[in-house]
Amino acid sequence: MKANKKLFALAAAAILAAGTIVGCGGDGGQNAAESAEAPAPAQSSEAAGEPSAEESAAEESAKKPSGDAIELTIWHTWGAGPGLDAMQQIADNYNESNDKNIHVTLGYVASQSSGNTQTMDKLMAAIAAGSPPDVALLDNFQVAGWAAQEALMPLDDLMEGVGLTLDGVYEWALEGSRYKDQTYSIPYNGDSRALFYNKDMFEAAGLDPENPPTTIDELTEAAEKLTIRDGSNYQQAGFIPWQFAGKPIYCWGWNFGGEFYDAANNVLTVDDPKNIEAVQWEVDFADRMGGIDFVNFASGLGSGAEDPFVTGQLAMAVRGNFDISNMAVYNPDMNYGVTPIPSKEAGKSANMIGGWGWTIPKGAKNPEASIDFLKYLISEEAQALMSEMSTSFSPLKSVNETVFAGDEVMDVFLQELEHGKIRPPVPVGQELWDGLNTVLDSALHKEDTPDNLMKKLNEKMNAELQKYN
């Protein structure tokens, strides 16, 4: 398997310099096991011992040009790391090249959870006070919730004014950018997931490392052969369905053939029988591997240098392309493969796509200047720079095909971008995400059956969704 060593070396070096690691699932500084949306690529700058947002803003203000330049403030949640480095370089390039006398300044806003709670609170407070930033970066599945609260400006007229189109953007990115047939965000990046598996551990267990599992049944059987335990003590686990990017119920519901949202009728379908079957499989899987002992073992696994896949405690794991730099830093000689996530039916692999988008908050003072900056952010020039520096995928297919050409590992993830799904882009998306995580935890601890839990959540979330009709 041939990897793009230059790209991964850049990411690994930046991560080491920042003293942190990119984790799965999209939320700054979040342990991959705790979230499954692709995180803001690194821990918060305060946690890394860097200047606070206020200190950074003060330092940056000293660099602002004098005169009558139009000043734009950009809020994001990304701490130190390659993702922030790329964003800063793009901003610098725009400041130097635009002919409209526009100057953008990045402003870090701390985020400590998969829901970016602190970002949400600060941004909503700023909008309510009539002093929002000119541009804010949001997780794509949260855009609908903000749009439904009338906290964001619709962008279609502004886009038309500067000739900005979203031609060539993946469908999943477009879905996350729109609400009620209006555009509210400009896609920035994306990520996909696959099954990582340790080839040496496969050989030791008598499994063919060149023929990884393609179905749920094959995955379960391989996991049993790869699990080594003595009673409640585990030397290694073959697989943990809810670990890392496999944590979201979305991942397995889709791979059992289920759906979570009927867009035509604006109805959530959490209680799709196939979704319930997926959660029941996770519960049965845990029982098969040791019950509560297995659940407790999984909950105690670490991250970073103690990542169980990196240390050899875990033979298979659903991970994202954002996790590859983790392997490069902590175990560069690991002999692993990457393959599509197994599904109930061979050849039907489904993938949860994550990504972020740029929005203009309601009340922003310079929307015309802001849309000019957003036009640059979605340009092939800026997108190529973002992908090259951060190893994150672009929402532009043409950029990915150029930047990651010849990279066999990334090609697996790129193929998954073609048919990936995003979390339902509905106003209750965050509440649904939290609710599904609670369902999984409750099911694994046998507090209720998956059938009851999923049906209760479906009823609750649809009641909330209907409030926005």
Number of beta-strand segments: 14
Distance between the termini: 50 Å
Estimate the strand proportion. Answer: 5-15%
Domain module tally: 2
- Specify the CATH class of the largest domain: Alpha Beta
Fourth-level CATH superfamily of the largest domain: Periplasmic binding protein-like II
- Using the alpha-carbon principal axes, give the shape: globular
Mean pLDDT across all residues, rounded? 87
Low-confidence regions: 1-37, 39-62, 112-118
Strand order of the largest sheet: 2-1-3-14-6
Q: What's the helical proportion of residues?
A: 40-55%
Q: Label the CATH architecture of the largest domain.
A: 3-Layer(aba) Sandwich
Plain-language structure description:
- This protein has 469 residues and is an alpha+beta fold.
- The protein folds into two domains: 5-191 and 353-418, D-Maltodextrin-Binding Protein, domain 2; 193-350 and 428-466, D-Maltodextrin-Binding Protein, domain 2 (3-Layer(aba) Sandwich).
- The chain contains 20 helices and 14 strands.
- The protein has helices spanning 5-18, 53-61, 82-97, 117-128, 143-148, 156-162, 171-177, 199-204, 216-226, 249-255, 273-289, 292-299, 308-311, 324-330, 367-377, 380-390, 397-403, 408-418, 429-444, 450-466; strands at residues 70-76, 102-108, 135-139, 178-179, 182-183, 186-191, 193-198, 228-230, 233-236, 261-262, 267-268, 316-320, 336-339, 354-359.
- The strands form five sheets. The protein has a five-stranded mixed beta sheet, sandwiched between helices.
- β10 (261-262) and β11 form a beta hairpin.
- α1 (5-18) packs across α14 (324-330).
- The longest helix is centred in the middle third of the chain and has 17 residues, at 273-289.
- The radius of gyration is 22 Å and the shape is globular.
- Residues 1-37, 39-62 and 112-118 have low confidence and may be disordered.
